[in-house]
Design brief:
heterodimer; A: 359 residues; MetI-like fold; 14 helices; globular; B: Dipeptide-binding Protein, domain 1; Dipeptide-binding Protein, domain 3; five-stranded mixed sheet
Chain lengths: 359, 618
């Protein structure tokens, strides 16, 4: 159904001016790629400019941490000058931007201003695995399970739906921080099932060992749960609605009337219903990377969120830029991956093929 | 039907999620490559045997967990950096040591690397303890001390400013260092402060680092920024009882040095904990929870209502009010360059509108002893300079009626709804009390202030800003009123330093330009003269007279309004795993958290609680 349908296209539609002939999917991906490139440039430029619109610079934060008691303005000015020069903050903004672009293109994200002499890339790469560990398995599992449950609820209705739907709606609408605090209160403060916050026990030194892995897993449980159930609830509610809508469409009735086997109909229903959910998945992943701030703070869990917050509150331009660049790249990559998925699943994407190219 | 449904569903899901396989796999690979989280180890040497010196699990009975000094992931242990991590900032002396450690109880300098001090005309001479050794076995020498002080002269380090008070650091005879005071600006008090917090570095290590990183050959000048790239996180050569063995974004780990030279001072005994671990948690609440659960033995952060924690065997220096030993005076800075704060009568009226008791209860869990007027602590080592008689005659107290009387007598009037009017009858604008966002004790104090000022018709509001903005605005004078603590620590130079921080006009600059003391731009020639003269007074009775005069000047002029007596350190401990902490009834060391100044000696008095010991309530 529908994979080779679609309006006839002008023969030249799939041809670029260079005479390159592209299939509908190729053209789709190329257009998406160009948009992502533009989005990346915009993100990089904005994250460069926005922090600089404020009235303070990272050097103010460096000086704020300095014990300046008894020092005269001239003496403090020496420290200020050293940091200002090192980070090119005495240059015009456009030149700073060119320096930044030049360095970024060569893969050099520079030093953090406030956490000098740490390199931004080192700082980010220390936190990134923790953030990804917190986000990817949590979101992907919640998404898969949420969609299965939502579909079951829509399809089976009855008691299952009447139980699941309000529960999912309730859990899905709890704010992250409320649920996180509730988990801390119940499982850490009251029941003491989890004995310590953080990514692993303070008494344990990281090593390649089963005991360390078990310790990390034990610490992972609460932060995981704080995100998992909320996303699960939201996904289940969304998928249920989509499926109910699809099940009620004309093509389903028509297919049933034609006597098409149930399995085939279900296949089409879910194929259609899953598309918006896939887009939603990309959006959730996008907002969660660097957005697990609350979870990180509540559970003293390492990650990019708290680092980003600290970078922003101290105006650490290079670190803000580095994290933003990384987040932008990951978000765009994930979105592109989802686009790929949609491209493969959605017959309308294929519809853009030049007529002669049809298989 | 159900079978077909499941198959169809799984088909779609598998197909769609398979597209995510690439990024997910990439992440898992990344995690796999990282394997163990980034942890920086600092064993004795590069051999595999040495690497084993960092254990996989730190035995509870040998490990002291401390918290509240660092929140962010560690950056550097280079003592020349603007803000190095625990335990390398100046006041903490368990890895590097200064010549002395200040005892906040007695007000004395306790020898650390030094063994004696002598004040001479225009100079201070210090005798070095000949027993002192670095962790690599080399002796701590006079050259190390001179070199360290010169490092702060060559580079714009946090202690660069001390050279304003020093002419020279040299040696005239073996084992003795002579600190010659700056001619024209002699200030032995500041120099004593530096002797008690300037931790000494080994010249034989650091001169080599400086040669490699501290000199820019092309520009032919010292290169501070390159020198800071040395993080000093691998096998630091230290003189103190502990050394850094590993750190990550989750914790900093120190190990006891069994060959610490200073053990001789304690009858050849070693400090009790073999390991000291500082977990890096993200909030005060997390540290408090960890303490209640027995995961933290010692904490330096603010725990409100500490008496409620006694059932968890958590307590402070004292088990009765005010629980802590106060040592600093947070105050309301007033901008003397902005009318009407240039008017002493208005400042006096404001001082009478401050509800000190309420601030103490709301902001500080009543940890502050009863406030007395002036800028001298009426207890502890400073009590000898405080005069109750002067306070009664020249002081102030919370009294709204009196405050309104002062305003009316000075020519102010009250308009509609009791709003205060300028002397010329114009309505007064709305003022701001600026304080850093997230500092809950100060935020509460600001609320009480605003409410009190409202009662005398002064319209004001709290203005909470980011820390760096607050600090910058203080520095350039961009505030009406702001909360700050002049000199948050006790030093050999307090209370003089506290007065100088709000009354000295030596470094005064107009609003708009940065200053690092006297943010309110108070200026008075008589006060300046008194502040300049005081550090040179050695006779104790003359000193008492000078301090009384200075405190009277303060109470008359009210350059700032003191708000509370705050502990310099929140010395709080849990007795679940360790006992023998310094406390009011066990004053083996001052309440300086076993690591600050003279508080270090408390580490030799701890004893681990044997497993299975019945827990006792305090």
């Amino acid at each position: 159904m529908g994979t080779d349908s679609g309006p006839p296209r002008h023969p030249a539609a799939g041809q670029l001016s260079m005479g390159l002939r592209l299939t509908g999917r190729q053209r789709y991906f190329l257009v998406r790629l160009s948009w992502y490139l533009l989005a990346l440039i915009a993100a990089v430029t904005l994250t460069f400019l926005l922090p600089r619109l404020g009235s303070t610079s990272p050097v103010d934060s460096v000086l704020a941490s300095l014990n300046t008691a008894g020092m005269s303005a001239a003496e403090v000015a020496e420290t200020r000058a050293e940091f200002t020069r090192a980070f090119h903050l005495d240059e015009p903004v456009w030149r700073q931007y060119l320096i930044y672009l030049g360095r970024t293109l060569t893969g050099d994200l520079g030093f953090s201003a406030v956490s000098y002499p740490n390199r931004c890339w080192e700082m980010v790469s220390e936190k990134l695995p923790w953030s990804l560990l917190l986000i990817l398995p949590t979101i992907v599992l919640a998404w898969i399970l949420g969609n299965i449950l939502g579909t079951l609820a829509a399809y089976k209705r009855g008691v299952f739906d009447r139980l699941l739907f309000p529960l999912a709606q309730f859990v899905g609408s709890i704010p992250f921080f409320c649920f996180g605090l509730l988990l801390v209160f119940v499982f850490y403060s009251q029941l003491a099932w989890v004995d310590e916050l953080g990514a692993y026990s303070a008494a344990v030194e990281p090593s390649f060992s089963l005991s360390f892995a078990a310790d990390v897993a034990a610490h992972y449980f609460l932060p995981f749960a704080s995100i998992f159930f909320i996303v699960l609830g939201g996904q289940a509610v969304g998928m249920r609605s989509l499926c109910i809508y699809e099940l009620d469409t004309d093509y389903v009735r028509y297919a049933k009337a034609l006597g098409i086997v149930e399995r085939k109909i279900v296949y089409y229903v879910f194929r259609n219903a899953i598309l918006p959910q896939l887009t939603g998945l990309a959006l959730i992943l996008g907002t969660m990377i660097g957005g697990t701030l609350i979870t990180e703070i509540i559970f003293s869990y390492p990650g990019l969120g708290t680092m980003m917050l600290r970078a922003i509150t101290t105006n650490d331009y290079p670190l803000i830029q580095a994290i933003a660049l990384l987040v932008a790249l990951i978000v765009l990559a994930l979105n592109f991956a989802v686009d790929l998925a949609i491209g493969l699943l959605d017959p309308r994407i294929k519809a853009g093929e030049p007529i002669g190219d049809r298989r | 039907m159900h079978v077909s449904f499941t198959k169809a569903l799984s088909g779609v899901l598998v197909r769609s999620t398979s597209c995510l396989a690439v990024p997910v796999t990439a992440v898992l690979l990344l995690l796999g490559c990282t394997g163990e989280p980034t942890v920086h180890r600092s064993p004795d040497g590069p051999s595999p045997k040495a690497r084993k010196t960092v254990p996989r699990v730190f035995p509870r009975g040998e490990t002291l967990y401390v918290g509240g000094w660092d929140w962010a992931p560690p950056v550097t242990f280079n003592r020349l950096a603007p803000d190095p991590n625990w335990p390398v900032d100046g006041v903490v002396q368990i890895m590097y040591e200064a010549l002395f450690g200040y005892d906040q109880l007695s007000g004395e300098l306790v020898p650390h690397l030094a063994r004696g001090i002598e004040r001479r005309p225009g100079a201070i001479a210090v005798k070095l303890d000949a027993r002192a050794r670095w962790s690599d076995g080399m002796p701590v020498t006079v050259e190390d001390v001179i070199y360290t002080f010169l490092l702060d002269k060559r580079y714009p380090t946090p202690r660069h400013g001390m050279w304003k008070f020093l002419e020279n650091v040299g040696s005239s005879k073996p084992g003795e260092i002579v600190f010659t005071l700056k001619k024209g600006n002699p200030n032995p008090l500041y120099v004593l402060d530096y002797l008690s917090e300037n931790v000494i570095l080994p010249k034989h290590i650091w001169s080599e680092i400086e040669r490699k990183k501290g000199w820019n050959q092309a520009a032919r000048k010292s290169d501070y920024m390159t020198l800071l790239t040395f993080k000093n996180d691998r096998n630091p050569v230290v003189s103190g009882p502990y050394r850094l063995i590993s750190y990550s974004d989750q914790k900093i780990v120190l190990q006891r040095r069994d060959d610490y030279w200073g053990n001789a001072k304690y009858g050849a005994r070693r400090a009790a904990p073999k390991y000291i671990i500082h977990p890096l948690l993200s909030t005060n609440t997390a540290y408090t929870d960890a303490m209640v659960k027995g995961h933290l033995d010692l904490a330096g952060h603010f725990i409100p209502r500490i008496w409620h924690k006694r059932t968890h065997q958590v307590r402070a220096w004292s088990t009765s009010p005010p629980y802590h030993r106060a040592g600093s005076i947070p105050a309301l800075m007033l901008n003397h360059e902005r009318p009407p704060f240039d008017d002493v009568n208005l400042r006096r009226a404001l001082a009478h509108a401050v509800d000190f008791e309420r601030i103490n209860a709301l902001a500080l869990s009543s940890y502050s002893p009863r406030m007395r007027p002036g800028f001298i602590l009426p207890f502890g080592a400073e009590a000898k300079y405080f005069s109750e008689e002067d306070a009664t005659i020249h002081g102030y107290g919370f009294d709204i009626g009196k405050s309104r009387e002062i305003l009316l007598a000075a020519g102010y009037s009250f308009g509609n709804k009791g709003r205060l009017l300028h002397k010329n009858g114009e309505a007064m604008g709305r003022f701001e009390v600026k304080c850093p966002r997230g500092w809950s004790d100060w935020e509460n104090a600001a609320r009480v202030l605003v409410a009190g000022f409202g009662k005398i018709g002064v319209s004001a509001g709290e203005r909470l800003v980011d820390y760096s903005i607050w600090k910058r605005d203080l520095s350039i004078g961009n505030f009406d009123m702001a909360i700050d603590t002049p000199t948050p620590m006790l030093w050999p130079s307090t209370p003089w330093r506290r007065f100088a921080q709000v009354m000295s006009s030596q470094n005064r600059l107009p609003v708009g330009q940065s200053v690092y003391e006297n943010y309110g731009r108070y200026s008075d020639p008589q006060a300046e003269q008194m502040i300049r003269a005081l550090p040179g007074i050695a006779n104790e009775s003359e000193l008492v007279t000078a301090y009384r005069a200075l405190n009277i000047k303060f109470m008359r002029d009210i350059p700032v309004v003191p708000l509370m007596y705050r502990p310099t350190q929140f010395h709080q401990f849990s007795e679940k795993h360790w006992r023998g902490f310094p406390a009011e009834e066990n004053p083996i060391a001052p309440p300086q958290c076993l690591m600050i100044g003279a508080g270090v000696s408390g580490l030799w008095g701890l004893t681990p609680v044997p497993r299975g010991t019945p827990q006792r309530a305090n």
